[in-house]
Design goal:
Largest sheet: 5 strands, parallel
CATH class of the largest domain: Alpha Beta
Strand order of the largest sheet: 2-5-8-1-9
Shape: elongated
Number of strands: 9
Low-confidence stretches: 1-10
Strand content: 15-25%
Order of helices and strands: HEHEHEEHEHEEEHEHHHHH
CATH topology of the largest domain: Rossmann fold
Bound molecules: adenosine-5'-diphosphate
Helix content: 40-55%
Oligomer: single chain
Number of domains: 2
Distance between the termini: 63 Å
Length: 269
């Protein structure tokens, strides 16, 4: 039996403003046991989207921030030593499989290569999780879903996802929202007035267009929200932009100056 998209009330789902048909796609993928891969720059709403969908589908969510030391055992589980001797402790992937939840692996390309061994049989139509250490093989229940994300711009080519892995997923590409959507997000997230949020978004878009090889990544929606929160709280707007929108982007003096020129040009002073 295929899972039905739960008619859970969305009242409790974290706020998420769609960029396109991603909610519909996610629902179809969930109902048909297809794992989802989300590509996009940092801070553009990938995590918020998955949190929103998990709440809408009424599934528990296990989010794992992957890093270069993350191994298959970190996902699956390991034996621990307790008072009564050793006992098995499920990792987040195993818990999601047992409970029929959503397992979201953020920045999956960072994880160690041995993780693909456990992800592959879960990401195709077998939907199984063999746990070597306990001899168990778990069959994922209908509610289980695997979601992974990565940032294609930031990764070096060697770190990209293997073809044999990526071709198991339905892919979604996220970018920064268009200006009016981003303004609405900033208003909603910070409480800043719409006209001021609009100006910040215009500024962010100008900063994004500045090409400088010392700026690894463009200013994200997350950073615009941070600047807006500081301004709404009474902090000086130019300083808020410097601290929230500019400083996190680079350490290079010249690049910082170039960015601040744009801030001054738009916000005055
Ligand atoms: P990512 O996982 O892509 O790095 P997040 O999902 O953590 O980014 O988004 C960062 C912040 O940006 C969120 O906390 C939220 O405030 C805001 N945000 C970005 N896009 C959206 C969106 N479409 N709807 C609601 N909030 C968003």
């Amino acid at each position: 039996m295929k899972p039905q998209a739960a008619e859970a009330s969305t009242a409790e789902a974290p706020y998420y403003l769609p960029q396109g048909r991603e909610r519909e796609l996610f629902r179809h993928a969930y109902q048909n046991y297809l794992p989802v891969l989300i590509k996009g720059p940092t801070g553009c709403g990938k995590t918020r989207f998955v949190e929103h969908m998990a709440a809408e589908l009424d599934r528990p969510l296990y989010t794992v921030a992957c890093h270069d030391d993350l191994s298959a055992a970190d996902l699956v589980g390991r034996h621990l030593i307790g008072d009564g001797g050793t006992y098995w402790s499920d990792g987040p992937l195993t818990r999601a499989v047992r409970e029929g939840g959503i397992c979201y692996l953020d920045e999956v390309v960072e994880a160690r290569k041995d993780t693909t061994v456990v992800l592959h049989p879960l990401a195709d139509d077998r939907r199984i999780l063999p746990i070597d250490r306990t001899g168990e093989t778990l069959r994922a229940p209908p509610g289980f879903m695997l979601v992974v994300s990565y940032n294609p711009g930031y990764q070096n080519l060697l770190k990209g996802m293997k073809t044999s892995t990526r071709q198991r997923f339905v892919g979604l590409r996220f970018g920064f929202p268009d200006p009016s959507a981003e303004r609405d997000i900033v208003v909603r997230e910070s409480g800043l007035a719409a006209e001021r949020a609009e100006l910040l978004v215009a500024l962010a878009n100008k900063l994004r267009r500045l090409e400088d090889h010392d700026i690894e990544e463009a200013a994200s929606t997350r950073l615009v929200v941070h600047a807006a929160i500081l301004i709404r709280n009474g902090f000086d707007p130019v300083a808020a932009c410097e601290n929230a929108l500019v400083e996190p982007l680079t350490d290079d003096e010249e690049a910082l100056q170039g960015l601040m020129e744009v801030v001054h040009a738009l916000l005055g002073e």
